[in-house]
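[recover] target loaded
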């Protein structure tokens, strides 16, 4: 237990001590000495980001409700804090008890993005735990990981003992009870891992993998699914952070899964089937969370909230209860179409800062290729309805580098955004503020586009310059463009579809200083280039790699839809691409 050392030797020497002190309202602290299983819930980013991640809050609540089990939070220390920890030889510690990471029985990581991997290694090392599974002994914790990246986790296969695939609410309880039982029986770590892999087909243990290129019959894993989503656990006393989090609000998941099948989106293909919570259950959760926290916004979470079948009734019920309490309603981007019809009803409750629309592609032809059937007339009708309902700003999302795309499609992004901004003039004579976020297409595992290579880096650089040139031509101050980091998108593609050989690359990059690769002030692309080169690979070639339809994919044994189904989607998309080619 490090409480005294943390207070005496650490907190006075870091820039934001509130990230590390713990003790917040609604946090749960058990006596670790009285618990037979101690779990460190680790998030490989700073406090402000970690405290905005709902998945961690759910698991924290579930585990701490189990008698004899204690779950405590451990987040990545920022650069200044890491320096203090290393200089003073203070091991990474939990927020609740200030307990060293290595004293926990289980160290569990939430993997939400490929570019958090260097932080996972850094946290293990700061905690005094060997980063490689093969280097740990019986006295070391079991290192477990879950989250969206578990479905393409081979790059982390050398560092993590066990992955949980899919939805964890029920799976984590079953896994915890198995581990407790095995530990009480005196089972060795290897036996526990083998038993878990044998017992649960949503558990993936990398040491049980037959090897790259092997046919995986008998080793295929599937995603755990919460069938009864209505009664799935939902924290009703969320922790109130000491440092302002990225999202500081009551968050309630209203549905799981998405009826859309955008061919670039991993979540829409991996998170199935579609399930809903009842209006009564959602409102009850929102009320309890509000009274336990005092947050002034209720956010309704899902992949596609406009497809929740009772969204009008839900918005009305929340408005009725919260209107006199000055609590607003926040919705993710409303899908054009049904979202348009909801605007008059939702305007009473939703704070009208800016309306977000994920357009993705500027032409209807490209949208057909990605399987997003959005017509321009519906897009303009939605924007006009938003302006009439009181919105003054639009936020648009576009993706560049999609299959079949031309530079004319890229140029059209600016023209379309310009026209949507000027559309407000017919309402009140003013121009709408339009903020445009442009990302670079990254082919994702378990999607139809996972077989395709990413465009060359030079293509993205050319597209960015073209967009900025077109904006200057329009002289439109109301248009603001924000671009994702191109190098980061290249790295995401290279690692995201990689195999176990990427483990060496990740370790080499981390040992060279890679940290917080999702942060502009820390990301160093050259470190990763050298790490790939060290093992005879090129990061851009890896990002642009195309897979054959009969090729064994590094992720195909890790949950996800049937391969033939995805290839059918890919075939339809490629036929649409062919239809775009001019006749000769």
């Amino acid at each position: 237990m490090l409480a005294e050392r943390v207070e005496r030797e650490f907190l006075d020497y870091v820039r934001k001590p509130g990230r590390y002190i713990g003790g917040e309202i609604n946090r749960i602290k058990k006596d670790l000495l009285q618990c037979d299983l101690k779990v460190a819930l680790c998030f490989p980013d700073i406090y402000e980001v970690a405290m905005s991640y709902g998945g961690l809050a759910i698991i924290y609540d579930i585990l701490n409700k189990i008698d004899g089990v204690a779950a405590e939070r451990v987040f990545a220390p920022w650069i200044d804090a890491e320096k203090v920890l290393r200089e003073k030889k203070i091991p990474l510690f939990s927020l609740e008890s200030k307990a060293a990471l290595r004293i926990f029985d289980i160290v569990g990581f939430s993997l939400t993005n490929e570019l958090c991997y260097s932080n996972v290694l850094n946290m293990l090392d700061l905690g005094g735990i060997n980063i490689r599974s093969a280097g740990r002994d019986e006295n070391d914790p079991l290192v477990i990981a879950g989250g969206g990246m578990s479905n393409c986790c081979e790059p982390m296969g050398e560092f993590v003992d066990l992955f949980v695939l899919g939805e964890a609410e029920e799976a984590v309880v079953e896994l915890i009870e198995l581990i407790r039982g095995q530990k009480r029986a005196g089972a060795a770590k290897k036996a526990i891992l083998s038993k878990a892999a044998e017992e649960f087909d949503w558990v993936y243990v990398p040491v049980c993998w037959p090897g790259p290129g092997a046919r995986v019959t008998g080793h295929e894993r599937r995603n755990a699914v919460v069938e009864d989503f209505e009664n799935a656990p939902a924290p009703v006393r969320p922790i109130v952070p000491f440092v302002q989090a990225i999202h500081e609000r009551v968050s309630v998941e209203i549905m799981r899964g998405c009826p859309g099948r955008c061919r670039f989106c991993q979540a829409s293909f991996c998170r199935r089937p579609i399930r809903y919570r009842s209006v009564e259950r959602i409102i009850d959760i929102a009320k309890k969370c509000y009274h336990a926290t005092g947050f002034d916004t209720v956010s309704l979470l899902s992949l596609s909230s406009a497809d929740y079948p009772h969204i009008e009734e839900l918005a009305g019920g929340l408005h009725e209860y919260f209107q006199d309490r000055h609590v607003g309603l926040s919705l993710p981007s409303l899908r054009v179409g049904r979202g348009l019809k909801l605007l008059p009803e939702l305007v009473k409750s939703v704070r009208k800062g800016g309306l977000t629309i994920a357009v993705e592609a500027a032409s209807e032809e490209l949208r057909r290729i990605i399987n997003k059937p959005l017509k321009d007339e519906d897009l303009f009708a939605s924007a006009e309805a938003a302006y009439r309902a009181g919105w003054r700003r639009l936020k648009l999302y576009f993706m560049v580098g999609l299959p079949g795309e031309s530079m004319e499609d890229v140029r059209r992004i600016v023209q379309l955004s310009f026209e949507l901004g000027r559309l407000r003039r017919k309402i009140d004579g003013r121009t709408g503020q339009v903020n445009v976020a442009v990302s670079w297409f990254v082919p994702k595992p378990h999607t139809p586009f996972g077989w395709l290579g990413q465009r060359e880096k030079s293509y993205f650089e050319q597209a960015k310059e073209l967009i900025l040139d077109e904006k200057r031509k329009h002289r439109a101050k109301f248009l603001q463009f924000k671009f994702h980091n191109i190098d980061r998108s290249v790295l995401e593609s290279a690692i995201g579809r990689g195999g176990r050989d990427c483990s060496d690359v990740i370790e080499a990059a981390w040992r060279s200083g890679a940290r917080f690769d999702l942060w502009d002030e820390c990301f160093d692309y050259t470190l990763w280039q050298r790490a790939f080169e060290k093992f005879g690979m090129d990061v851009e070639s890896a990002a642009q790699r195309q897979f054959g339809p009969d090729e064994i994919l590094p992720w195909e044994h890790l949950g996800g839809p049937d391969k033939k189904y995805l290839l059918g989607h890919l075939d339809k998309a490629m036929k649409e691409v062919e239809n775009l080619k001019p006749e000769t």
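[recover] notes: The chain has a mean pLDDT of 92.
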